[in-house]
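dumping this here before i forget
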Amino acid sequence: RGTNIELVKKNGTPGFVETLEDFPFILITPQCPEEEIWDNERLMAVLNEVIEKYPVDTTRIYCTGLSMGGYGTFALAASYPWRFAAIAPVCGGGFPLTAQKLKNIPVWAFHGDVDPVIPPSESQKMVEAINFFGGNAKLTLYPGIGHNAWDLAYSDSTLYRWFLQHKK
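structure:
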């Protein structure tokens, strides 16, 4: 949270992306304002603006976020399930009652198995609920990792190849 966009590079995908030679995505990395939570309508307005200005393949729109952004990933996709080809929440969670809305979106969640900030059960509940409704969700639990699973998730090119396997 905040207004220092450089912090997003420290803990998000931009820091990893800068080290890659070939990154076949347009990356949008919003930062939630202080004392606020993610506003799905505002996030969709940003996405729509990017779609209007850049050559976006609208059949390949993916969403990922970490910590509060992991919650935001589940919430945004549940609010706009027709927009996303796949999602990858990291160290997040959500409301299992919304899982039915996510059943047609491939989900790959990531969490540290000893996360003291957001218990891994938050991701587990969502993955189980999505699969209960016939969805395609999986969870990677990193052994011995706390609330920093994003370093492992985002630095592994397997995630990006997985995204590219999915389209609407």
